[in-house]
Specification:
This protein has helices at about 1-45, 50-60, 60-65, 95-100. It is mostly helical and about 110 residues long. The longest helix is centred in the first third of the chain and has 46 residues, at about 1-45.
């Protein structure tokens, strides 16, 4: 009985230590990800600074051919024309028609 109790205690202690190690690793990974997010946010704020974007726009003006936005270019979603509906090509079979032509006994399945 004493040996069984000692074995159970050892096993429980060992599992608790493993769980503690797993918790420490997980907390370390969380800290790493939080640090990475902070660095990425700092990079984003540097990359999107208006002065930097203005310099890039001026540097690549010939390549980008950007212009100022005119007020009449901004419209509501209602002013955008709707995409015409897609009409299926009559020469292409639909999946339902293909399934009708399949011989179900030729696949090696149980014969009806």
């Amino acid at each position: 009985m004493m040996v069984a109790a000692a074995a159970f205690t050892y096993k429980t202690k060992h599992e608790a230590e493993n769980q503690f190690d797993l918790l420490a690793k997980t907390e370390s990974q969380i800290r790493y990800e939080e640090d990475t997010i902070s660095i990425l946010k700092a990079d984003w704020s540097l990359l999107t600074q208006p002065a930097r974007l203005q310099r890039l726009t001026e540097s690549y003006a010939d390549d980008l051919k950007l212009g100022t936005v005119e007020p009449e270019q901004i419209v509501t979603p209602d002013a955008i024309p709707q995409r015409p509906p897609e009409v299926p090509d009559p020469n292409i079979d639909t999946i339902a028609e293909m399934l009708k032509r399949i011989d179900k006994t030729s696949t090696g399945a149980i014969k009806p």
